[in-house]
Every structure is written in C-alpha cells, then in structure tokens.
Amino acid sequence: MKILADNKRANFEYTILQKWQAGLKLTGPEVKTAKLGQIDLKGAYVTLESMPGKLMPEAWLVGAHIAKYAPAGYSQNHYNPLRKRKLLLNKKEIAELIGKTKQKGLTVLPLLVYTSQRLVKLEIGLGQGKKKFDKRETIKKREFERSKQRLMK
User: Fold this and answer.
1) Range of 15's domain?
2) φ and ψ at 56, to 5 degrees?
3) CA 53, CA 101: separation in Å to the nearest integer?
4) Are 87 and 24 in contact (CB under 8 A)?
5) What is the pTM of this model?
6) Which CATH number characterizes residue 125's domain?
7) pLDDT, average across residues 8-36
C-alpha cells in the first residue's frame, strides 16, 4: 500500500468514528496523475445523491483536485481538475452511510488516497466535528509527543 494523498485537516477538524474503503472511478490520465501523487484532498467532501431513475443513491467525491496529466496533451483540453468523481461502494455500505449521515453533526470525509495492488482507493471516514477545546487538546498531545521524541534522541 502506497499513500498518495492524506487529508490531515480532516483528522484535526473531526473525530473519525468509522472508516470505509472505496474505489474511485477515474479516467486514464487521472489515474496516472494520482499515482504520481498530484492529488489534493483539501476541502474535499463526500455526498450521497440520488440519480433520476435509480433507486439507490450514489456516493460522489466533490472538491478533490487531481492535476492535469501533462503527457496526455490535447486529449485533456477541456479537463476540469475539480470535477465530481464517483465512489465505488456496495449497496450495503451506501445504505449504512445514508443512515449515519442523517444523524445530526456527522459528515462523510475523504481521509486517504492510496494504491492497493494496481488500483487507486480512497479511505472515507464518518466524522463528528471537534469543538475548539478538543482541538487544543490535540495540539497539546502532539507537542508533548514531539518533545518526548526530542528527549529520547
């Protein structure tokens, strides 16, 4: 497993309650760019939208920036790096996400983009927003761990 992108802000802003692994539906040049690590999850989120004529809603990754693949040339003339990308989850997982997101204060966030064998995968998490004092505690713990590591060396 090789980590391509990490959403550190999500781990700071939210308490992650549960995690899922989802596939990403990407075009060929997007896969190559993602495997080069030119993907940014800052400000990205996951939505569950119903499509006309379909019973079950679909999960979409919104706001993730995947850069244009330069060697693709003119085939990417009208490429939108911020387009919505479909997440590949099974019906049971989508139903579970729908139930969880109906609760107040819970959101679904992208956490990691990584490769599993040759596939690009996304780890999504159910997050509950942290209060200001929770964030301060996180900072204190991180500073304590850093100072402890410095003393060990």
Assistant:
1) 2-152
2) -95, 135
3) 23
4) yes
5) 0.78
6) 2.40.280.10
7) 87
